[in-house]
Amino acid sequence: MRYLYPVTLQQDENNQFVATCRDIPEAITGGESKIEALNCMSDALGAALAGYSLDGLNIPVPSRLLKNEYRVPVPPLIAAKLVLRSAMAEKGYSNVTLAKHLGLSEGAVRRLVNPDHASKLDGVIHALALVGRQLVVEDLLAEPG
Known about the structure:
The chain is α+β, with helices and mostly antiparallel strands. 43% of the residues lie in helices and 14% in strands. The chain has 5 helices and 4 strands, in the order βββαβαααα.
């Protein structure tokens, strides 16, 4: 799945830009400029989706981009961890199972799959390969659809 969500920007009465996402209504943020609001929204999406994942909720599939919406990516480390957690669930892997495959402790894997933990991306990429997944990084132009 591409972790790119449609985001709307609106200017408020104080000339601040407010960013919202119809797919993830918990992600609301803003900034003094469009770029600042969109950058903050990336973090807000990551935080909201981390909460979804930790609560055992399904991750919403991004909707189609509409006119005047911006595509905002989830931070790469969080997106990679969400994919890892999903792939582990599909394969029926527990933290212990993945730990055995990686030669790590269960606690190390618990941190590796925790979206709130600042793991090294290389470790998550290695774990993704073991569950048959890959991480793709893409460059996007920050313009509305």
